[in-house]
Write a structure and sequence with these properties.
Blueprint: E1 2-6, H1 10-26, E2 31-36, H2 38-42, E3 46-50, H3 59-64, H4 66-83, E4 87-91, H5 94-106, E5 111-114, H6 126-133, E6 136-139, H7 142-149, E7 156-157, H8 162-165, E8 179-184, H9 189-200, E9 209-215, H10 221-225, E10 234-238, H11 241-247, E11 248-254, H12 257-264, E12 269-273, H13 277-286, H14 294-299, E13 306-308, H15 314-325, H16 328-343, H17 349-361
Parallel strand pairs: 1-2, 1-4, 2-3, 4-5, 5-6, 6-7, 8-9, 8-11, 9-10, 11-12, 12-13
Helix pairs in contact: 1-17, 5-6
């Protein structure tokens, strides 16, 4: 079968690549074209556009890049029509993918959505749009099935694909005699420029630790290096997030999928986030949840500290970091991470999703 997949960020590239691997294992004739990343390209098929050219973060950033986004829509539609796939598979990235779903449905294309947009956090009325445009929704968080049921929409809960991804042990980081503090400043240039300077400002407070920055090769190295002071005890490793986390005592992580990945690896963490002032004000009015991190949302209580906007500063970050390097705060968080793992439904999400997709496509 022919699969057209659309991904808009690094986490989607990871999960879509594992789904492609599972589809190939169950469909010997699987053929892929996609908007995605390097991990998807490694699975085979044709990469038409890289997600690094799609990653616009925040309301203001989207607005000023509106012309580019409209050009991307036109290009993507043309590629889908030329390829004529058996199914269009959309992976998260709602601002783009929900519009593509509506367009594809009008042209009688089969539409699957893997990893639900966070409509339960903001714009819940988007569920009505999803019901009209998406043939099957595959959700990865346990509370999402109940949420959609409240709108009389049947979805498939497949478990979280990170439970499979963290099983693939990657290269750990050598730090000599020092313990590691992992810095995860995000995967977009805008995020990194806001997050990394504050994270690095703590270096001199922890002389017995080595700061290791989790870099991504899709971002220009100059974005990282302009923030790094000569002589400081730090390192940058690219495309080895899991290896860095496995080696760390504690992690400072920009809000996103990486916060959940860190928790599943049982590494104590502080969740950090700072957007543009304009985007933050709009988000504050729209977001309906108590928390922004997946860890706290899944557990429905504060397990990890969330330092958001003005709270994301050197003093607050140091206070939280001190508490996680020793004492009861660290012990309690690690206990909570065990419960988190149990709530997520166990491994096998990618294989289960592939099996369900093929079943629906073959009319089973």
């Amino acid at each position: 079968m022919k699969y057209f997949i659309i991904v808009g960020e690094a986490s989607g590239d990871l999960h879509a690549s594992n789904l492609m691997k599972a589809l190939k294992a169950q469909d010997a004739d699987a053929d892929f074209q996609f908007w995605g990343g390097d991990l998807m390209e490694a699975q085979g098929g044709t990469l038409l556009k890289h997600y690094r050219d799609l990653a616009f973060m925040g309301f203001w950033e989207v607005l000023i890049n509106l012309f580019t986004i409209l050009v991307n829509f036109k290009s993507c539609k043309r590629s889908i029509l030329e390829y004529n796939p058996h199914v269009v598979i959309l992976v998260d990235y709602p601002g783009f993918n929900l519009r593509m779903a509506a367009w594809a449905k009008k042209r009688s294309l089969k539409v699957f959505y893997y990893i639900s947009p966070q409509v339960w956090a903001w714009k819940p009325k988007r569920v009505h749009q999803i019901k009209k445009a998406v043939d099957r929704m595959f959700v990865i968080l346990p509370f999402e099935r109940e949420f959609y049921a409240g709108y009389d929409y049947d979805v498939d809960f497949v478990g979280h694909p990170l439970l499979d991804a963290v099983g693939d042990r990657k290269q750990e980081v050598e730090a000599g005699e020092k313990s590691i503090i992992a810095l995860v400043p995000g995967s977009r240039e805008q995020e990194i420029s806001r997050m990394l300077p504050v994270m690095l400002s703590l270096q001199n407070d922890y002389p017995n630790h080595k700061f290791v920055v989790a870099g991504v090769s899709t971002v220009n190295r100059d974005i990282y290096e302009q923030h790094l002071k000569l002589g400081a005890d730090f390192a940058i490793q690219f495309d080895n997030l899991e290896g860095i986390l496995r080696s760390a005592d504690v992690a400072l992580v920009t809000s996103g999928t990486a916060t959940l990945q860190t928790a599943l690896l049982k590494i104590p963490l502080v969740v950090c986030y700072k957007g543009s002032f304009f985007s933050y004000i709009i988000a504050k009015q729209l977001i309906k949840t108590k928390y922004i991190s997946l860890v706290n949302l899944i557990m429905d209580r504060e397990v990890v500290a969330e330092l958001i906007q003005s709270d994301f500063n050197r003093e607050m970050l140091k206070r939280e970091l001190d508490g996680l390097l020793k004492g009861e705060r660290r012990k309690k968080m690690l206990q909570d991470f065990k419960l988190l793992n149990e709530k997520l439904g166990g491994p096998g999400a990618s294989s289960k999703t592939a099996e369900l997709m093929l079943g629906y496509l073959k009319g089973r």
